[in-house]
Specification:
Helices cover 35% and strands 21% of the residues. By secondary structure, the chain is of the alpha+beta class. Strands 4-5-8-9 form a 4-stranded antiparallel sheet, with no helix packed on it. The chain has a two-stranded antiparallel ribbon with strand order 1-12.
């Protein structure tokens, strides 16, 4: 008796895949939007980069699902875990809202479950037409909860408009990157140091000048003191001479 071959979905990290609903429509980023929070929806497979996904391993059977065109991840809106939480794209982050488990159904199909919420990737209202948005919902084995992951073997098509949009977005990211300017800070600090040194130097110069002046004054003081006694001695001699002359005059008169 022949053994029945069980179909298993094998995922390699260096390849890209489409994620298809039962009717063949694929999961894509709406309008090849590059922004965080862009809608994830179903659309006819047109072999476009924004309809293709890479699976970045984050554990045993656990992946981050990355869009080939935008480089952003399938993510739960605001990290929600309730039924009906929308699925959108967001830049890669170390967040459990971006972790997904691929569960094989052994018939070539898979369920893609949020590792955070334990709920299945699902379409809102069960719709599978173009533009149907994605959400998570409790596992009810509904037809809209089964997906087929197929490797992309043909070179994807990228429209000129989409390529331009991608280039413009990448330029904005580069322009928005913060620029650290250390030079102005160094200049300010250098100026502050110079300003601090000048007053100190002036104070030293003034102190030297004051000491020099004091020294001059001190040198002059002894000369002043020395002059005063000499003047006093001269005045005393003159006074003594006057007294002596006054005494001599009456003596002469008496002799006559």
């Amino acid at each position: 008796m022949a053994t029945k071959k069980i179909a298993q979905t094998v995922i390699a990290e260096d390849k890209f895949y489409t994620i298809s609903a039962a009717n063949g429509k694929v999961v894509e980023v709406a309008d090849y939007n590059m922004d965080n929070g862009a809608k994830i929806q179903l659309w006819d497979n047109a072999d476009k980069e924004w309809q293709q996904w890479g699976f970045v391993r984050a554990g045993e059977g656990v992946y981050r699902i990355k869009n080939r065109f935008t480089g952003k991840m399938l993510d739960l809106d605001r990290g929600g875990v309730n039924d009906g939480t929308h699925v959108h794209q967001w830049e890669g982050a170390n967040a459990s809202s971006q972790l997904w488990v691929v569960e094989n159904m052994n018939d070539g199909r898979v369920k893609i479950k949020s590792n955070l919420a334990g709920k299945c990737l699902d379409t809102i209202g069960g719709y599978t037409e173009n533009g149907a948005a994605l959400q998570i919902w409790a596992d009810v084995s509904g037809e809209n909860q089964f997906w087929t992951i197929a490797e992309v073997t043909r070179k994807p098509k990228t429209t000129a408009k989409a390529a331009k949009a991608k280039a413009e977005t990448e330029e904005k990211v580069v322009e928005a990157a913060p620029v650290v300017e250390a030079k102005p800070e160094v200049k300010v600090e250098a100026k502050a140091e110079v300003k601090d040194e000048k007053p100190a130097a002036k104070k030293v110069e003034k102190a030297v000048e004051v000491k020099a002046e004091e020294k001059k004054v001190e040198e002059k003081k002894p000369e002043v003191k020395a002059e005063k006694p000499a003047a006093m001695a001269s005045a005393a001699k003159k006074a003594l001479a006057k007294k002596t002359a006054a005494k001599k005059a009456p003596a002469k008169k008496a002799a006559k």
